[in-house]
Design goal:
- The structure is a single chain.
- With about 160 residues, the protein is an all-alpha fold.
- It has five helices and two strands; from the N terminus they run αββαααα.
- It has a two-stranded antiparallel sheet with strand order 1-2.
- β1 and β2 form a beta hairpin.
- α1 runs parallel beside α3 and α1 runs antiparallel to α4.
């Protein structure tokens, strides 16, 4: 099947900049979704650690687990900041937009993996069951990392733009 010349959108052979712009906008939207998923994982983990008891005390009282939850919160907050930044840079020059999108994608990918893994671990075996949404959010964050290029791709893209 052939497509007629009247079906072409824009100039022939010059679609890549538009595709990259739309992809960067999609990365900003995915960053917001990922930040929301990380927030849900943080909230669910903190609540679980307040109620799950081990040795007669809530596991949230153990300092090492408190440190993990703080690290999860920090990764989430950094992801929120990067989401704001990429959203603000969408109207800037192509170079600024590309760097912001790649920077956000790297942060979101690393943070999503970290927050997801910690949430699953702190929930124990329950973390990956269908009874809790923890496993669902972790799987979604993993998929977001691969959409429109993973961390490695965007590190390369960022360094080429810098």
């Amino acid at each position: 099947m052939k497509v007629g010349a009247d079906a072409v959108i824009g100039e022939v052979g010059k679609a890549l900049p538009l595709i990259e712009k739309v992809t960067d906008q999609a990365i900003a939207a995915l960053s917001a979704e990922a930040a929301g998923g990380m927030k849900e994982l943080n909230d669910a983990t903190v609540e679980y650690c307040k109620t799950r008891k081990q040795f007669g005390v809530p596991i949230g009282k153990f300092q090492v687990l408190q440190h993990r939850m703080v690290d999860m919160f920090m990764a989430y907050e950094q992801s929120v900041s990067m989401t704001y930044m990429v959203t603000l840079k969408l109207g800037e020059s192509e170079e600024e937009r590309r760097k912001a999108a790649s920077g956000a994608k790297v942060q979101i990918g690393k943070a999503g993996r970290f927050v997801g893994q910690q949430a699953v671990q702190l929930h124990g075996g329950m973390g990956m069951t269908d009874e809790l949404n923890v496993g669902h959010y972790f799987k979604r964050l993993t998929m977001i990392d691969t959409q429109f290029g993973n961390v490695d791709h965007h590190l390369t893209r960022y360094s080429a733009a810098a």
